[in-house]
Amino acid sequence: TSKEVIMPFNLDLLAQAKVLVMGDIMLDSYLWGDVGRISPEAPVPVVRVKEKSLVLGGAGNVAANLAGLGCPVAVIGVLGPDEAGERLKTMLDEKGVQNLLLTDTSRITTTKTRVMAQRQQLLRLDEEFSEVFPGDLQTQLENLFEKEVRNCKAVVLSDYGKGMFQTPGMCQNIIKLCRKLNIPVLVDPKGDNWKRYKGATCITPNTAELELVTGALACEGEKTMVSSARSVRKRFDLDWLLVTRGHKGMCLVGQDEKPVMISARAREVFDVSGAGDTVIAGLAAGLAAGLPFVKATELSNTAAGVVVGKLGTQPINKAELNTCLRMNLSEGKKHGPFKLVNLDAAKIQVQAWRTSGEKVIFTNGCYDLLHPGHIDLLHQARSLGDRLVVGLNTDASVKRLKGENRPILFEQDRGAILSALGCVDLVVLFDEDTPLDLIKALRPDILVKGADYSPEEVVGRKEVESYGGKVTLVPLLEGYSTTGITNKVLSVNK
Fold it and tell me: Which of 134, 145, 389, 446 is most buried (most C-beta within 10 Å)?
């Protein structure tokens, strides 16, 4: 059993690890609202929609995870000639993903719309066209893949059953080329016809997907699951088979008779949407960066442990994973939800809180050497509402504001310490000198600063007050400052 997180690992190595993602790309749409009554037309709840959000789904989410980790990534897929397709292209561009998408006039862009209320999913609406691809489109895709794959260190095939890999010969042609070029090819499977994946480096099913292929109850017990996994690996000529088992962790089966059992990173599970995408993205990133297969699997397991603590389909990012690795979360410990998030994740979470009627408070700072004055201010801020979001300056931002010798603690460490406070609900890094862009994006109900500021000096005051929000100045606990503590330590050491 693997019990240790794989630190130390330099995530900066991922910047040299280009990955090619090919598969069914889709747009995930969320409608956020609340339910106050039952429809008079039918016995169904009436959702009063308050906000909407869009995220990348399917192969797009795999690519978003890789981009979030800092990997150069390209994605090959097919869109329809519609508004959803154009929006997908824009979202990929915003995340720095190389767009190699083709447009097929006979199809529509796959879109999944989820209706959310009281922090629960009430309904999902799917718009899709999942017929197999015509011959000319298949040829275009294979030619595009052959041209691009030579620049990559790993390949992910993301099969969501929307037609691409159901097209006869497509999957096998790609796998054989990758084998010839000695490039690992990882498959996120769909359905029970795995003949098309034969010869892949690794397939990453969950237990239900494994059972679909074996016909056995793979989740009945560990021995049955391992036996099923070994049988499937041999039948389809795979180097590895990685079975994801939810709260039970992962089982990695290779040519060695002894399987590798990897425990789940104990963390509050809020939403498993997109966790499989994070697993295969983390695995591909690790392999592309040169990690051995078991270590790359541990990296993917740690990444998945972060995203299940988020709401909706949200990718991992480098800061989140780095913090998690630095904390060295070990097996058997209970940890709360992951609080250090990027802006996209924060926006979705704040939307969910707001539509549930919760009041969101925002404050910000460098928090370099957290002291009682900081903690007192944060507790005061949290008492003003239901959720406290803390904007945290990145290392680069602190250095510009405080000088070359600061920060004393790295941003991941400062974020981890803030996340450990019960009064803090989210920590969001920002790289600018002020949190103005962050405030505009999150639109908090209350903006909090210390009483050493005047209302006119508070960044974001006009913006918050413009939509009915409040700015509150709270008294400071006297006698504490990071600079004062730093100078005291330096004087003692002289």
Answer: 389
Question: Nearest 10 degrees: CA dihedral of 402, 403, 406, 410?
Answer: 80
Query: Tokens in use for 276?
Result: 């499989």
Distance CA 367, CA 213 (A): 52
pLDDT at 5: 42
Sheet arrangement for strand 250-253: 98-99, 73-76, 19-23, 154-158, 185-188, 202-203, 240-244, 250-253, 260-262
Cα distance between residue 297 and residue 414, in whole Å: 27
Amino acid at site 114: R
Q: What burial letters (b/e) apply to 389-426, b meaning 16+ CB within 10 Å?
A: bbbbbbbebbeeebeeebbbbbbbebbbbbbebeebbb
Instruction: Judge contact between 152 and 67, C-beta under 8 A.
Output: no
b/e code 138-150 from CB counts within 10 Å (16+ = b): bebbbebbeebbe
User: Per the structure block, which two tokens stand in for 207?
Assistant: 């237990």
Answer yes or no: are the C-beta atoms of 345 and 441 closer than 8 Å.
no
Give the pLDDT score at 8: 54
Catalytic residue from among 277, 344, 425, 445: 277
Residue partners of 44: CB distance under 8 A and separation at least 6: 38
Measured in degrees and rounded to the nearest 5, phi and psi for residue 205 equal -80, 160
For the question of residue 277 being annotated catalytic, the response is yes
Q: Which two tokens stand for residue 372?
A: 């009682």
What is the distance between the alpha carbons of residues 13 and 286, in angstroms, rounded to a whole number? 9
The C-alpha atoms of residue 103 and residue 79 are separated, in whole angstroms, by: 5
Are 437 and 347 within 8 A, CB to CB? Answer: no
- Taking the C-alpha atoms of residue 10 and residue 421, their distance in angstroms, rounded to an integer, is 27
Please give the pLDDT value at position 4. 42
> What is residue 307's predicted lDDT score, i.e. its pLDDT?
66
**81: Cβ contacts below 8 Å, ≥ 6 apart:** 103, 104, 105
| Whole-number pLDDT of residue 334 | 44
pLDDT attached to residue 7: 45
> What is the β-pairing status of strands 250-253 and 240-244?
antiparallel
Mean pLDDT by 10 residues, the chain (494 residues): 50 89 95 90 91 90 92 96 96 95 95 88 91 93 95 95 92 96 96 94 92 74 84 94 86 86 62 75 93 89 73 68 60 55 82 82 92 92 95 93 87 88 93 94 94 91 94 84 63 60
